[in-house]
Structures are given as structure tokens and as C-alpha cells.
Amino acid sequence: MTCREIEGFLEAYADGEFEGPEQAEIESHLAGCDDCRDGVEAHKAFKRCLRGAASGCSGSNHSAPDRLRASIAGALDQQVKQRQRARLKPVLAWGVLTAAAAAGTVLWIRAGLVRERASSYVSAAIANHQRALPLDVQDEQLAKIQSFFQGKVDFPPSRILNLRNAGLVGGRISSLSNHQAAYVVWQKGGQRRISLFVFDAPELTVPRNRRVKDRDLLIANQHGYNAVLWKDQGIAYSLVSDLDEQDIIDLVAASSH
Ligand SMILES: [Zn+2]
């Protein structure tokens, strides 16, 4: 909050009319703002002065008659009551702040849904990797694998990546969360199987937790497998293996069309 925004609330604050988050909001501003703190003190001193009705105010020892004191006190109480009735305006202002906080919550929830959707693809990729279903085609040449997928997937098979530092084993038509996918199996260091899933998922946003060679990667570990999910020009890729996380990241970094 700025001094301008808080200005109109200082008097009510000095009278102790705020509580909970509103009070905390004002106090957090006051903690760092001498001017507004002085403003609150001035209001409090003024009220003390009036309620004391000249006794102990500005060093004056002239005491007002009881009747005057009572009428000033009554007027002050009336003022507080009026302001309480008029709280609609301040409440509306605070309502705007609350709405902003709610918008923040919506963004936070939306970010949560994005993460959830992305991680559902990762889970599906890991489940498919674990199943190790038989391959439809076996070949060590990427061009042969790509031509196998021609007409069988809804994206150009040329988008299937070459994992340069691994040996190609073969491919299979697969699906990930209702998306048709090209499933390509690679091998590294003898028995270490690597699954690459390539699919078209326009609605998928990948929340990155690592950036490697201009690629925003979501790296996850589930059931002892490391998985990476990323998107490149609209096409989504997921790599799953029991290789170390760094080995998988290296494979992604070295991959090319
Ligand atoms: Zn201030």
C-alpha cells in the first residue's frame, strides 16, 4: 500500500477500528513509514487532547467543566459511530485489495493445473516405458523409423529426434494421455533402455525446472525412473530411462532433428 492509499484509514486505525488482515496490512506499512506513523500519533494525541478536554493537553492546566467534557466525549463517540456506518467506502477499497489477492490465488491454481497436466504426461510416459511393449518396427537407422511412422501419427515424422549418443532399437505406435504418440526405443551402455515419446499436444504447457540449450525442461523422477518433458515448436517430447538425471539431460542437449 502507498501513503496515499493508507491516508484515509489512519484516523480509523488510530481509533482501533481495524482488526485481522486489515490491521496487519496497515501495520506493515507503518513499520516502514515515519510519515504515516506520525499521522497516527497525531490523530491519537488529538483525540487524547479532546477527551482530556484541556486537562494535560499542551501543558495547559485549565480544566474544562464536566458538562463540556461530556459533550466533547459524546461528539467523539458520535463521530466514530458515523464512521462505522460509513465503513462501506473503506470496505469497498479493501474489497479491491481482496479481489487482487483472489486473482493471485486463481493464477496460483492455474499454475497448479499446468503442473498437474504436465506431470500426467510424465507419469503416462513412465508407465509406457515400464510396460516395455513389443516394437512394431526394429531398425538402427532413424530414417527407416521415421518412414515407418509416416501416415501413422498426426505430425511430421521428421520431428522425431535423433538421440546422437545412444543406439536406435526400434519404434511403436503408442499413446500418452489420449494423444497418439511415436514411441522410439534407444539403448545406451548395453542394457539401459531409453524411451522417447513424440506427440502433438497444443494444449500442453511445460512448466520448466531446468533450461538446457534453449529448451525449457520439466525433469521428474518417479518410481526410480528419470523423465524429461519438453516442447519444441509445438511438438512435445518425453524421454524416460533409469539412467542418471545428468545422463538424460546430456542426451536431450545432444539431440537433434
Ligand atoms: Zn506512509
Question: What's the arrangement of secondary structure elements?
Answer:
Layout: H1 3-7, H2 10-14, H3 20-31, H4 34-52, H5 66-85, H6 88-131, E1 137-138, H7 142-149, E2 167-176, E3 179-188, E4 192-200, E5 210-212, E6 215-222, E7 225-232, E8 235-241, H8 245-254
Antiparallel strand pairs: 1-2, 2-3, 3-4, 4-8, 5-6, 6-7, 7-8
Helix pairs in contact: 4-5
The structure holds zinc ion (ZN).
How would you explain this protein's 3D organization?
Helix 4 packs across helix 5. It contains 8 helices and 8 strands; from the N terminus they run H-H-H-H-H-H-E-H-E-E-E-E-E-E-E-H.
The overall pLDDT, averaged over residues, is 82
Structural class by sheet pairing and helices: alpha+beta
User: Could you give the order of strands across the largest sheet?
Assistant: 1-2-3-4-8-7-6-5
Radius of gyration: 34 Å
State the major sheet. Answer: 8 strands, antiparallel
Shape label: rod-shaped
Beta-strand proportion: 15-25%
Name the helicity range: 40-55%
Distance from N terminus to C terminus (CA atoms, Å) equals: 52 Å
Number of strands: 8
**What's the total helix number?**
8
Note poorly predicted spans.
Answer: 58-62
Short description:
Helices cover 48% and strands 22% of the residues. The protein has helices spanning 3-7, 10-14, 20-31, 34-52, 66-85, 88-131, 142-149, 245-254; strands spanning 137-138, 167-176, 179-188, 192-200, 210-212, 215-222, 225-232, 235-241.
Can you tag this structure with a few keywords?
257 residues, alpha+beta, 8 strands, binds zinc ion
